Amino acid sequence: MTKEEFVFTINSKLKLVRTEYGLTQEKMAAVLGISKKSLVESEKGRRSLLWTEAVAVASIFDNSTVLQDSLGDDFKDMVSALALQDVDVMYPSTMGGKIFWRDIKNNGRYRIQQNIISGHYRLLDAQDRRIFVSFHLYKIEEYMNGLS
Questions:
Q1: Is residue 119 a part of any domain in this protein?
Q2: How far apart are CA 108 and CA 17, in angstroms?
Q3: Can you give the residue range of the structural domain that contains 141?
Q4: Cα separation of 99 and 32, whole Å?
Q5: Among residues of the chain, what percentage have pLDDT more than 90?
Q6: I need a surface site. Which of 36, 65, 91, 146 has the fewest CB within 10 A?
Q7: Is residue 64 one of the residues assigned to a domain?
Q8: Helix H segments across the chain?
C-alpha cells in the first residue's frame, strides 16, 4: 500500500466513519480541524484528504469497525510504515503478531512478519521489538542481513 492508496481508502470511508460515530458534518469537521466545506467535498469525492488529514482520521477513529474492516486492526503500524518508509528509527516492543501477522522468516535472532491485510512487512527482534518496517520484503531482508 502506498500513501496515496491509504489516503484513498480513508477518503472513501470518511462518510461511513462519520455516521458510524453518529457525528454531523459540522462536528466531524471540527474534530478533524478542517472546514465543513472541505469535509463535504471529501465525502463527495470532489476533494481528496491530505496525508495528514487521513492520518488524523485513522488516529482519532482507530476503533472504527469500518476502518478495521478495510485496513485491519493494526493500521497504526501501517501508518507508521508509510510515514517512516526508508527511515531508520527505534520502535517499541510489539505483542509478537498474534493477530493479522504471519511469519515469513525466522533465524532465531530476528523474525520477519507480513501483515495479512495491508501486506507490509516488519522485522522483529527476539523480544518482539519492531526494528524496521517496509512494504518491500527485500528491504527488510537487506536490513536483517546487515544486522547479522
A1: yes
A2: 41
A3: 101-147
A4: 29
A5: 55
A6: 146
A7: yes
A8: 3-20, 25-32, 36-43, 51-60, 65-71, 75-83, 137-147
